[in-house]
Amino acid sequence: MILINRYMRDLLTLVEAATVSSKLETTPLPYTHKALDPVMSADTIEYHYEHLAKGYAKRYNSGEGDPDFNRSGNFLHNKFFTQLQAPKGANRPKGAVLELIESNFKTYEDFKIEFKETAMKLKGSGWVYLSTGGEIKTIKDHAVRTDICVLVDWWEHAWALDYQWDKEKYLDNIWKIINWNVCSERI
Known about the structure:
This protein has helices spanning 2-18, 42-62, 67-82, 95-105, 108-121, 156-163, 167-174, 180-185; strands spanning 126-131, 136-140, 148-153. By secondary structure, the chain is mainly alpha-helical. It has a single domain (41-185), classed as Iron/manganese superoxide dismutase, C-terminal domain (minor pseudopilin epsh fold), CATH 3.55.40.20. Strands 2-1-3 form a three-stranded antiparallel β-sheet, with helices on both faces. The chain is globular and about 45 Å long.
């Protein structure tokens, strides 16, 4: 049953991504602009979500720019922002995502080390994610992927306002605001 549900979810994601004639929307934030502070400031959310993320849907819907880039950017930002939550003390993975991490990396700490190593090797901008198959993968620029479990935006706009040059610190802190329940549901 789980495999069928996962298959259907992946199929729906592909159909959604392939429907280039449909209007795109940006998923509403499940939190306020100030809720992710101090990991992400209200200024970063205002800039990143309100202007950049919503801009992909706006440009796509008005026929501006590269439609594949805008559609993929909208898709990825919708995945990214919906997996975040207000910081809640010691935020650690649980459930299916913890099982996935431990079966592929032994410990959560080992996973974070390997994730950071992969992210730091990515030249320029892009995305880094834990796949539903347990691999750490990257996306150069934008592309729709159906195997995203945990997604980290590695473009400068995600971290530069709050962390300036220190993107490693951004990555160290992002784990404090991941909603592991959402990530477990993606498996």
